[in-house]
Amino acid sequence: MALTSLDDTSHRDNVTITGDDTKEALELCALLKETCRCHNTPSPAHDTQQVDVNKNSSQYKTLVQQSLSQIQQDHYSKIILSRPVNLQDGVDMPSTLHCGRQSNTPSRSFSLRHGDYQATGFSPELVMSLDKGVVTTEPLAGTRSCKGPEAEIQRLRHELENDRKEIVEHVISVKEAVHEISQLSDKPMVEDFMSVRVRGSVQHLSSRVCGRLSPEKDMWDAFSVLFPSITASGIPKQAAIDAITCLESQPRELYSGAILMIEDENTMEAALVLRSVFQDRDSQWIQAGAGVIAESDPSRELTETCEKLASIAPFVVREAKGLENRLNGYH
């Protein structure tokens, strides 16, 4: 059983529940109506967890410094380093989805359960989409906070649009996206370049790269080229992934992976799993990363992870007693 939410003008605030069992789906709908009652911020009825997003700050800055040394040695030109923040209590995933969706502006939202593993998130971008023969990827790279008075938000937007590091990071990501689309299409195009998009607590530089899928290619060919995302791994991908495996303290699992929605052999979306909360039998955590290039400053990259964590941390609802048992049947 999976929950997904689309974020466009015709589907805003709607939730799609998919599954094999109609009775089970209807029961889950009823449970969601009962447990998810909040408005623009989590209501007092929801016991949201207090999360310290500054945990392990010094360790993260050390990792960034190590990656900068590797960049100087030409091991890779860009790497996305992430850090997990552990939570003390179990997570009520449906309530977290509903509460967080009120204050976020994701590309796609999702909540899923597979056995003992659960995740809920507010994806900022699509790794890829395939629609009517056109394959598209939407790299986001370059970040500033989007919280505070409007004047401060606009000041930060101007800073984002004129920051050398953020611009360089975005341009090399778009260049790599064009290279990847060119493996799938004879005529790759940049439809939108370096626009600013708001994604919850942050604003990003965003571009859209697309091309008509070659007749001999299919959706899985496209996915194998575009996944993992440039904006969650690095450039070159394999070198960055190898470095991530060595530098980060634990496996990423679903974080920086993708949630797929497949309608038919010609229609597919893969949403990047970021701005998410995760839970298994033993623990629960949130996670965020930042893109490191030669121009990076470790303190700024740490701040960026905190800004991104603010899209999920305030909305993590503590699991109510008895709710775990009631949700056990919905996988």
TrEMBL record:
Keywords: Lyase, Magnesium, Metal-binding. The keyword Ligase does not apply. Residues 58-308 form the Chorismate-utilising enzyme C-terminal domain. GO terms for molecular function: isochorismate synthase activity; metal ion binding; oxo-acid-lyase activity. It comes from the Eukaryota. Its cofactor is Mg(2+). InterPro entries: ADC_synthase, Anth_synth_I-like, Chorismate_C, Salicylate_synthase. GO terms for biological process: L-tryptophan biosynthetic process. PANTHER family: AMINOBENZOATE/ANTHRANILATE SYNTHASE (PTHR11236), ISOCHORISMATE SYNTHASE MENF (PTHR11236:SF48). This is Chorismate-utilising enzyme C-terminal domain-containing protein. It comes from Aspergillus tubingensis.
